[in-house]
Amino acid sequence: MWHEISTVLENSLYFIALINPASKIFFLTAQRPSLSSKEVIRISCRASLFAFLILLGCCLGGYFVLEHVFRVKLYALQLSGGLVLLFSGMAAVQKGVFYHDRDEQTHPSFDELSVVPLAAPLIAGPGTIAATISFSMQYGTLSTLLSLIPALLTNWCLMLLSRHITKTLEFFAFAGPVIRLTGLIVMAVAMQMMLSGAGGFIASLK
After folding, report:
1. For the chain, what are the domain ranges?
2. CA 166, 168, 172: angle at the middle one, nearest 5?
3. Are the C-beta atoms of 128 and 84 separated by less than 8 Å?
4. Which of 6, 114, 118, 188 has the fewest CB atoms within 10 Å, measured from its CB?
5. Rounded to 5°, angle at Cα 167 from 92 and 164
């Protein structure tokens, strides 16, 4: 019993690292013109809902679609997802920013913004999708969902508080260090995912 609870908590923390709430916080506050509180709430709710539906689908039938429709092995998804995460984390470490300000003339509608790119690929990205499919095979659908839901709720709450969090970090000049530290964590998670994928590939050759 306690082992199952511990596994769920560990996997939930892993999902939080993959989702990377810090990047969503700075994404929302980087929008120009600035989003109002109501707009942040609306976008955060829609993005979290769509991301959950995407990951729910991956949890329930992702492996079947991946293996039998696209003929893609799980280790290939882990390698590609880890590579995308690696470049994302590397950019954050080197530049100290996750996203650049958008041009006001190219600002998408709020409904578009909440689905693409926020819900996918920023929340339900390659790394999160790969982990969802992998965990559903390893730990079962229920355990994976119990790990995934708290991670999504944590990300949702932090997105709702994005304006206050960003102002506090900027006041204490912590925004840059937080971004770089988060980027380093993302890189470490990406490397671990790629190593797992490489291990799966090597095992398939035997």
Report:
1. 36-100+108-205
2. 115
3. no
4. 6
5. 105
